[in-house]
Structures are given as C-alpha cells and as structure tokens.
TrEMBL record:
Entry-linked Pfam families: Aconitase
GO BP of this protein: oxoacid metabolic process
Species: Eiseniibacteriota bacterium
Superkingdom of source: Bacteria
Residue span(s) of domain Aconitase/3-isopropylmalate dehydratase large subunit alpha/beta/alpha: 54-183
Protein name per its UniProtKB record: Aconitase/3-isopropylmalate dehydratase large subunit alpha/beta/alpha domain-containing protein
GO molecular function: iron-sulfur cluster binding; lyase activity; metal ion binding
Cited Gene3D superfamilies: Aconitase, domain 3
SUPFAM superfamilies named among the record's database cross-references: Aconitase iron-sulfur domain
Keyword tags: Iron, Iron-sulfur, Lyase, Metal-binding
InterPro entries with a match to the protein in the record: Acnase/IPM_dHydase_lsu_aba_1/3, Acoase/IPM_deHydtase_lsu_aba, Aconitase_4Fe-4S_dom, IPM_dehydratase_rel_enz
Amino acid sequence: FGALPYPRLAPGQDARFALDETLALEEVVPMIARPFSPGNAFPAAEIAAERLGFDKAMIGSCTNGGYDDLMQAALVLRSARRAGHTRALTPLIVFPGSAGVKRRIEQPDPRLDGESIAAVFREAGGEIRESWCGPCFGQGPDALSPGQRAITSFNRNWTNRMGVGGEGYLASPGVVAASAMLGYMGPPSELGLDWEPERFEA
C-alpha cells in the first residue's frame, strides 16, 4: 500500500497489557442471545434443542443490513433450497442497511449463480422493507406486539426494545435465515447444512 501518511504506531518493547487473550476461532460456533441482553448468548445448537418457536424473523437494520450481511443470509437460503427447504415457515422480513444496499441487492451476483440477493429472499417468502430502524426500536408495523417473539439480527434486545411486551432474540443473519426456514430457532446445521464459515461468508 505504500508509505503511510502518518508515523507508524507500535507499543514499546516494555509495554504491559491489562488483558492478553488468545481466541481459538476454530471453536467459534453460531450463537443466539436470549432476552434481555446481547450478552445472554448460547450456542444456537443448544437453543435448537428447545424447538423455540417465534412469530417473526427479521434481518437487517444498521447493524447487520450491509450487502455482505444479507449475502450471508441469502447463501444459507440457497443452500436450504437445495436441501429441500424452499419456503420460510414464519414471516421473514428484511431491512437493508441503506437505500444504496437496497438497490444493490436487486442486482445479479455471481456468488448466487446470477440471482440477486433480493430474488433469493423473495423466493423463500421474504419481504424486503425500506431502509429504516423500524422494529429494532419498536416502531412501525413490524414492531412486536405483547406476547410476540422474534429472532433478529438487530443489535439490542432489552426489555420492550422491539415493541412493548415483545421478546427479541439476537443472532447472525445466517442463523436468522436458517431459523425462518426451520420454524424454530436454530443454526444452519438443523437444516442438514454443514456450517462452513468460508462457504457462507460473502
């Protein structure tokens, strides 16, 4: 990339750190966060054993509404289609992260063999909304009603966050897409798909 336009920064040889961790990324698995905190997270396979149903699956908003985020979900949906799961069993609602993303997901993509992300969602029964916060902060027609439960790729699931009296669960776009096809919360492996991060990364 050439020379940096600023001096290179690095810690001194005698630097000491308050925290020094090593993460084994090969051990990372799909997760689902229960209400009412993003930190209340468990392996999605454990949640799947409970066959926990829900009223809506929602993907997008500012946090997981980028093109690559929606591509991850579309890749899961296409793999599910090949395995015989063709339609979502619960409402699947998509909120692109910006107007630009909404336009772009209508374009063919070679990673989807020429299909567009939007076409993959629609074929599975998904609905694509305008780019806005909506139910992520409990507003609009898709906000949760009392007693409703949703699995989403939003970033917060505090009490009443997605609608007064509703329960929000958090997961990656791929896990939300898989859950919509299953009709209960679970990872892509519940659809008979091998979870290979490289395969489902955009």
